[in-house]
Amino acid sequence: MSNKYVQDIAEIRQMMEKSSRFISLSGLSGVMAGIYALIGAYIAWKLAYTSEDLIYDQLLIRDVRGNLTWLILDALGVMFLAIITGIYLTKKKAKKDGVKSWDKTAQRVLINLLVPLVTGGVLVIIFYYQGLIGLIAPTTLIFYGLGLINASHYTYRDVRFLGISEVVLGLIASAVIGYGLLIWAIGFGVLHILYGAIMYFKYEK
Description:
This protein is mainly α. It has helices at residues 2-20, 27-48, 61-65, 68-97, 104-129, 136-151, 158-175, 180-204.
């Protein structure tokens, strides 16, 4: 009889977990987002740099603005692919798990993620017009990390560790301005691939 009670409690706990946390995040979407980020970083490097050097402490704002349209298209392309892939794989996982892919919990995740992201986006625009190109990569990493930490309250706790890692990388990039693009590629590319793979084998395999 006691085993039955333990089983019932475990089932109730699982139901509460499903209702209070967004558990449809796909690890594979993280892997794909990381791959897209690495490709985008490579394209940005080819567009913004005239040499093979990843250091841009001498990069002039006119050098970036000369390729601004292409750099924006590059960034939007990466974001679009990551979002579309994320939505598709999340819906697929939700259907497999028998849960909704869009509910109040998912809305909370999105809101908590977007507040820091929008704030960071505005700050990036300000930095750009002030000519502070070197602070753009660190800023995106820090505010993206803060967004993940915020959102982790309503989804897998593992997301918090990814967020903390992004913030730490952003702070490092702030200290070594010349290596911003390289550190950005590590944060949005390599970390996403590692995190996505861990999530996939931990929760989906």
